[in-house]
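>> received
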Amino acid sequence: MRHAEAEPAKPPGDAAPSGPAGPGRSRRRALTGLLAQPAGALLVVIVAAITVPQYWLFLATSVLVSAVALLGLGIVGRAGMNSLCQLSFAAVGAWTVAQLNVWETPGGLIAWTLAGGLAAMPFGVLIGLPALRLRGVHLAVVTLGFAAAADVVISAVNFPGVDSYQQVLRPGFIATDRQYFVYAGLVFVVAAVGVQWLGGTRTGAAWRAVRFSERATAASGTGVAGAKLSAFALSAFAAGLSGGLLAGQVGMITAQNFGTISSLALFVVAVMAGGEYVGGALLGGVMIMFVPELFRRAGINQDWANVLFGVGAVHALSQGSSVSEGVARRLRARRPAAVPAPRAPVDGGTPPLGTEPLLEVKGLSVRFGQVVALQDVDLVVPEGTVMGLIGPNGAGKSTLTDALSGFLPSATGSVTLAGRPLGGLPVHRRAAAGLRRTFQQDRVPTGLTVGAYLRFAAHRAVPAGELAEVRAFLGCPPPDAHVADLDVGSRRLLEVAAALLARPKLIILDEPAAGLAHAESLALADRLVEVPARYGASVLLIEHDLDMVRRACARVVVLDFGQVIAAGPPAEVLARPEVARAYLGDEVALT
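>> returned
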């Protein structure tokens, strides 16, 4: 962010150890994690306000202004989106402050700055709308286009008060530069605490989940569109705050403060330093302001600083992590390894078979152009039942799962759950109606802890005791373990645990044993047998491990070439010659 005179938050933690002292200890650790980095930043601000000379204090204030904007970039970064127009939002905030100053609006600079942040939010939503369909470089191009257009408009319109040389007035208690530096530090700390707190809420978890998998986010009952738009709106709010801070700092602002190149520089610094972290935002602000100053003092053109930032961003992308993320990973590596909860004993028993229909599929067909993926599929999953869906590769199992959960439209047919038609409902609405699913590939967001993911995916308030019970039932890692540090098998169990915590009517498990050893697959089968009685959900199990299917399922349906070719008890179905032909190409029974 340029000035007239001169040319992340830690991911949401969730510690909830089991035992009598667990919940209280969890709250204390969460509060400590929420305040630790902002409190350290405030201490640095106070020391700097006392000791730093006037000129360097001005640059230090600029560091805080840029750091607030970087916190906003960290929000959209958490959601896996790129924004190259952060300073355009800051310009909206600065313009609002300047206009309110000209109008002599009651409330003073502090209220004007908040108004500037709020004024920027609709522009954030407007830019967020393309993000509902665009990702990656395409979204970056859209935001860059907005930044370029805003640059032209700002240069043509100019800011209020500039023509009459009207300075933005500061209240008396922040009139001096040292006082204003402390004020900017307080604004940064409040913004950092707010971002940290949001990171621990369902909204923050939704951003992380969207970044990792939009499909899994929708399947967990969360609207992807709402998560993306909220990220852009709050990012624009932070940028608007930074623009208001800048207006109060320099007194009179111009279009040069918000150029497109400066927006690009802010973005690459966020990538390199890690705008998602409080420390990363502060580090990025230091780099933006002090690196060019050091170059100037060394007789080097200040524009070379942007080249340096670009090289750092490329290095961060090639390494797969920012400076702050690398530090966080090293700190986590020093912790003791996560030990999964001891699995609660189960007896397995006879797979249950209900009588009343829960899921009813009639005449379901799905076509991709001229290719018929499913043809007139009829399927009934009874209440209180674990039922298997099997078939060779390419049989249509994944297509059927996507059609049931709402990811694919059906050409003909109907789907009802507990008597409620699901046709036309989007994915997250079907999840809210009681249909949950898992995926063949790992879809657990790595930016969350185990506890944060389970609470997010449950889509409801989950007591600590219930969380501990489900973890013990499946043998999941402790709640403060980071998903990024878990093996694939543990993540698959975690996905099943999340589905159970949602208390749905039906869970579709798509190859949940992938990544598990054979003995672990059979142990999971024993637990699935208990799910209907223990959690009140029926299970539709899609699995290639036939030993697991025999052990867990009371009934099996076989698909081949998009059609149901057999249905009934596992032993009877697997002995049929048409099933053997589908799997092996001959009529040897699948024993």
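>> The longest helix spans residues 22-51.
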